[in-house]
Amino acid sequence: MKVGKTNNDHMYPSLHRLLLAKGFPATWFLSEDIRCHVTLQDSILATSVLSIINSNVSMKQVHSLRHDLEEKNALLSTVQKQLSKHQPNGTTGNMTNESTTGRVIEHLQAEIDSLKKELAESKTLIHVAKVARERAERQVSEHLASHQTLRLEIDSLKRMFERKERQSKELEESTKDIEKRNSDMKFERDNAYTRLRQSELKVSDLERKLQEALALKEKSEIEYSLLSKEMQSFKTRYANDVEIVKKEFKILRKEMSSTSRSLEDVVLMTSVKVEEITSERTEEIGNLESIADKLKENQEKHAQKLLKEIEAMKKDVEHSSQKTSEHIMNELEYSSLLFIRIC
């Protein structure tokens, strides 16, 4: 449906084209009443838009409303300028102007109601967005606090991790030291075991020699006792022989006291012979006694030497065993302390 042109179209050609471009009816005519009404509504909408802008929420919808209001304000300012330039001088067409003014007011009122509705919806959306923003701010603050707490926990965990790394390095070094000590202990243990075996062999050899020496000592004692008995028997026989010779000599002396010089020579020879026999017997006794003394002295020296060697070997074995035990105990104590420290 085409709308015919009015008198106002010829009076305000540029305004008519602008209104048509903005979607207003072609029969819309502006008057002083319209200007006053538009100025009042413009101030109301401007105040609403400022309140919307100040909320800083739902920026997209506020921007759309603000754009519409700017267009309406530009249109109204253009209309006002056209009205101020082309004010009608007569009263021609008052009836048409009143009807057109009523339609324009109704259209503006509808536009204002629509804008109010949109404004109310925008306020509701702004309130909802504000509540959402507050909730988001609380969540952000909570997240910041949680982030700070997590950062502190991360720093604490980093320090703990660094401490654990240091402890791990220390434990690795301690483990290497323990392994080295264990290898040294094994080497010393093997050496001690070797020395112990050698000492045991020496002890067994000394025990064997001691048994041989004891057997030799018993044999020597038996021989010495036999020699002593034989010496005693020899002394007894010698004493008996001397007594017999003396008795025979006395008898012969008595029997031959009246004989001649030759008999005296015989007696002298007999005496010399007796003395020789006696000296020979005495030398034999001395030799036997010296042999017995030497045998006894050699037995005692050999026994003392064996006893000294046995005592020295016992001391060496005891010292080696004690040293090995002390070293093993020290290493065990060190290992136990280090194990307790690791745990």
From TrEMBL:
Keywords: Coiled coil, Endoplasmic reticulum, Membrane, mRNA transport, RNA-binding, Transport. Residues 164-185 are annotated as: Disordered. One of its GO terms (molecular function) is RNA binding. One of its GO terms (cellular component) is endoplasmic reticulum membrane. It is a peripheral membrane protein. Residues 285-323 form a coiled coil. Signal peptide: none annotated. Transmembrane segments: none annotated. Pfam families: SHE3 (PF17078). The keyword Iron-sulfur does not apply. GO terms for biological process: endoplasmic reticulum inheritance; mRNA transport. It is found in: Endoplasmic reticulum membrane. RNA-binding protein that binds specific mRNAs including the ASH1 mRNA, coding for a repressor of the HO endonuclease. Part of the mRNA localization machinery that restricts accumulation of certain proteins to the bud and in the daughter cell. Required for the delivery of cortical endoplasmic reticulum into the emerging bud. Belongs to the SHE3 family. This is SWI5-dependent HO expression protein 3. It comes from Funneliformis mosseae.
